[in-house]
Specification:
Blueprint (H helix, E strand, L loop, with lengths): L6 H9 L20 H11 L4 H12 L5 H12 L10 H7 L3 E4 L1 H9 L1 H9 L12 H19 L1 H6 L2 H19 L7 H26 L4 E9 L8 E5 L2 E5 L1 E11 L2 E10 L7 H5 L5 H10 L10 E9 L7 H4 L3 H11 L3 E5 L2 H7 L10 E3 L5 E3 L1 E2 L1 H23 L23 H4 L15 H9 L17
Parallel strand pairs: 1-4, 6-7, 8-11
Antiparallel strand pairs: 2-5, 3-4, 5-6, 7-8, 9-10
Helix pairs in contact: 2-3, 6-7, 8-10, 10-11
Amino acid sequence: EELRPSETVAWLRERFPLLTPRDTALLRPLERLEGENAGFALLCEERRKGGSLYASLLDYFRSKEAYAPRLEALERVTQRKAAELRIEDTDAAALLFRARMTLSPSRAESYANCPFQYFCAYGMKAKPRRVADFDPLFRGNAVHTVLERLLRETGVEALLAMEPAARAQCLDRVMETYSAAYLDMERLPARVGYLFRRLRDILLQVLERMIHQFAASAFRPVAFELPIDWDSAVKPYEIAFEGGIVSLRGKADRVDCATVNGQTFFRVTDYKSGSKQFSLGEVFEGFQLQLLVYLFSLWQSDAAPFKGALPGGILYERAKDPVLSAGERERSPAEIAAQKQKQNRADGLLLQDEALLLAMERDGLGLYLPARRMPDGAFGGKLVTLAGLGKLKGRVDAVLAEMAARLRQGNIAALPYQAQGEKEACAFCDYQAVCGREAGEAVRTAAALSFEEALASLEQEGGAPDAVDGGTAAGD
């Protein structure tokens, strides 16, 4: 992260050229004692180490009556482990997290990642300061907005009829419009302009893959940025929990529909620039819920065209340029293109129905989908039956209900989730300096389940909940 000196430092150096700046991070502890506030901050830093400096500072502040409340607070923090943090006043917790709770799927995942992180971000609304840059969040917003406008304004059929050069021109026009509306290139660092131009090349690849996928599919977009809210046609997804009801709302990036053998199916699609794979096991832990929540919202909706329609699945479209190894780059252009196609195959979860899958990809080769026809003629991949999807809905409901109940009870423990094989859970947390959690303290973990293991676990559960009368799939 690039940090430049403040304008005050530049002003002082211009007028007093003999001044020598010093980095306060390199000062010895006693050199930082410029006053009582700096001294108390040093006391807090030294509390874990102890020693003579800590003892001297503690004796000094104990003699100051005004610092008694702050010392008591420091003592409470010292004695309580981060994993035991909670809102002691249950009435305050109930006021902060009401019985009628409204969340977005991403906020629910934040709680699953770490309850204290959720409390800081959404309970206390503490927002970290960020350097203006083309960071992953901003990049993801650009990808979603540009692709949405391109498909909405030009239309899939018109794009299919164009030559690649004409599609590239359409993309350039949309990106110019986006840049004029959201990016002040004259004020932003040159790096942002470079990354935005680089994004154009990636989006052109994504667009061409998308066009080839639509050419092989009967599915077509019926909605972009579809709002799921109380004032929209599609209402929020609601779950009852002990003490109240939690409503989940948001926007589905893209919803596609097709009619197969007289039955309408829909699928929810999102664009992802990362390489993370869809994991059914992580869904059980409260992650990767967003598209599933939107899918379930549409499944129970009475709004057209979803009333009576069946869920066909969720898809994560890759919006990135794959990184090839040195050996892979030495292959022929055709082999490189095939490898990139493989790495950019959409991920997700699809309904196990042959007619539906062939409507999604006509030849069933699995070039674009996380499923393909196997040598024995059956389809394999990340597939689930309609009954299994109902059981998954029940599992997601249970995860969200437990999360809402724990919030309402004031459970805000700094107990981060750490997946097997991943780095320290708090390495990139914006609130690491607030919770007081030390390296090596407790984390929440779970067994790393393969898709097959997670699906088997799901199939062992009881019958599918009757909240949605799904009917039968096209191939049943």
